[in-house]
C-alpha cells in the first residue's frame, strides 16, 4: 500500500474536485481542477503497475477534469473522449457488470449532462436529449433531476420530436410543485397543442424558467417565439426575443444559445419588412452558430450544426435580396460555398485515448464504432454516440472571410467568437472574379439565391423558388442516384416523395437525344438559368461567339450535366452558346492569378501519366494516347507501379513551373474528407497534401501547368458543389493553371477511354485554353450524340462505346 500513497492522495483530490458544482454557462474548469488533472495524468504516465481499482479511479477523475479544460479550449472531440472514458471507468469501478440501467450516481449524472451540453451546441437535439435522459435517471438531487428532465423535454421540442416531448410531459405533469418547473410544463404543453392559444401570461412566465438554467430558458423561449411568429404575432414574438436576449447576455450565456434566438429574430424582421435589422441579426447568429464546426468534432456533428443555422443563412440571403444589395449577396453566397460541409480536414491523433478506452472492455470496430465485449457493462447509447463521434473527429480549418467591394459582413462577427484566434485578412472576391460572366448560386429552404457578374462587375441578383418546379427534384435525385456521388439528404430542398411517373433513369433516358424524358431532364436543369443570364446567352448567340461563362453552382446542382442543359427560349444546349468553366473558390482563384503565366506558344510536353494505379479499372487498349507520356505509371502488376513514392519522385523531378501535362485515371473514395489519388500499394495522395508547401513556398506536391483527372468525383465537387474543396482546388493550389476533372462518378467504359484520349491530345496543343479544348470535344460529342440516337442502340452501363452524355458532360474545366 505504501508504494501508492501519492496515487491514493490524488484519487482523493480527484473525488473532491469532481464534486465541485459546475457553472451553468461560461468556463467549466478552475485552476485547481486543471492542476489536479495534470498531476493525475503525469502520475499515470509514470506508474504503469498500479492496482486495477486505483488505476481505474484515477482515469475516471482525470477524464472528467481534463474534459472540462478541453471543453473550455473548444476541443469538443477530445472533451467527448475524456468524458465518455470517465463514464466507462465509473461504471466499471462502481457498478461492475450491471445489466440494468445504473441509477443514483451523481457523478454519472454530471458526466451525462456535460455530454448533453456538448451536443446542444452542435444542434444535435436527439443525442442531447439522450444524454440528458441519462442524467435525469442518475441524479439523486431533486433540483438537478428536475432540471435534467426539463432539458430532455426542451431538446425534443426544439428538435421537432413532439411525440417524445408529449410522452415525457404526460409522465411528469402533476408531479412537480416547483413553480418555475410548473411554468415550464404548462408552456410546453401549450406548444405541443396546435389548438392551445399562447397568451400574455405565457409570454411573461417564460422568463421564470430562467431559474431552470440557460438551456431550458433559452430554447423554451426560442420555441415560444417560433410559435408566435408562425401564427403571425410578430411584434409579440419580438418582445419575448428582446427580453430573453437581454437576460441571456446578462447571464453571459453560451453564444449558441444566444444565436438561436437571434436567428429567430432575424426571420421575424424579414417578415415585417425590416430587412436591415434582419441582415444585421442574421449574420451575427450565423457566426455564433457556425463556430462549433471548427472544433475537433465528427462529420455528423458538423452536418447537424450546418442544419442548425440554416435559418440564419436563409434570413441573411433573403434580406440581402430584399434590400437590393448584390454586394452582400455575392459575399454571402461565396461564404456559404467556402463553409459548406468540409474544407481541409486534418486528422486528430486519438491513439492514446483509444488505448485507455479499450482497456476497459470497449472495443472499436474497423469502422471506428464502439462495441461492447461479451459481458460488457450497462451503458447508455448516448455514451457510445459520444465515443464514436470523438474517435471520428477531425479539425476543420476555418475558411478565410470573404470581402466584396471593400467590406465583409461576416468577418467581424467571426473574430468575436470564443477561441477564434487572430482573424485572417478577408479574401477579396473582386480580385478573384474571372473575366466574362460569373454566375453563383446557393440553395436554402428550397429557394435558389443567385448572383451574376460580368468582367468582375455586378450585373444582377435575385432568388428563385425551386419548390414551384414539379420536375426539379425528381430530375436532380435521378442524376444523383445515377452518379452515386451526391448526398440528397444534405440538400436544402423540401422533403420529397416520388409520385407515379416521376422516375427518370439518366443512363437510359439521356441516351436518346430529344426523347420526351431527355427533353424534360435537360429543360428542367436549363430552367435554373436566371433570366438575365439567358439574355446574355442570347446576345452571344446573335454575335455568333460563345459566352465565356464561369459556373459556381450550389451543391444541389453538383450532378447537373450543364453542357446539355437547354437554354430557355431556344432549342440550343448550353455548351453551344458558352465556353464553360467551373469555379472552385475565391482563395484558389487568387492563388492562380498570383502566378506568372507561361510564355505564348510554349510547348506542352506530356510529362506523367498515372493510369489505373490500383488495378480496379479496365486495361487500356494498345495505342492509347496515355502511352505518349514521358513517364507512365500503372497498376500493381505493371512494369512501373504507381506507388506513392514513385509518383512523388516523378512529380519532384518536374520543374515546379513546368508547362506540361499530368494525367491521372483511377477510382476515388466517396468520403470527401479522404478525397485524393488512390495509388498502387494502398497509400493514396490526399487532397489536403496538395495544399502544403515547403519553407521556400514550393508545393509539397508540385503540379505542372495542365492536369487531367478522370475518376469518380475527381473534383470533389459533387458532394459540396465545388466549394473550394476536393482535388480540383488542391491541384490549382499546387501549381496547376488548367485543370479538367470529373464532377461526378464516371462509368468505366470503352467510350470513357476514347474521350480521355481526345482530351489528352487537345491539352497538348500550345496556346489552347483548357475550357476551349473541353468545349470543342463536347461539341463534337453533342453532334455524335444526335447521330447515335438516330441509330436507336440501347445504352449498356458496362460497355458504352458511343458518346453517351452521362459520361462526356461529367468533365469540367476548373
From TrEMBL:
Q: Which InterPro entries match?
A: CHAT_dom
Q: Would you say which domain of life the source belongs to?
A: Bacteria
**CHAT domain span:** 533-813
Name the record gives this protein: CHAT domain-containing protein
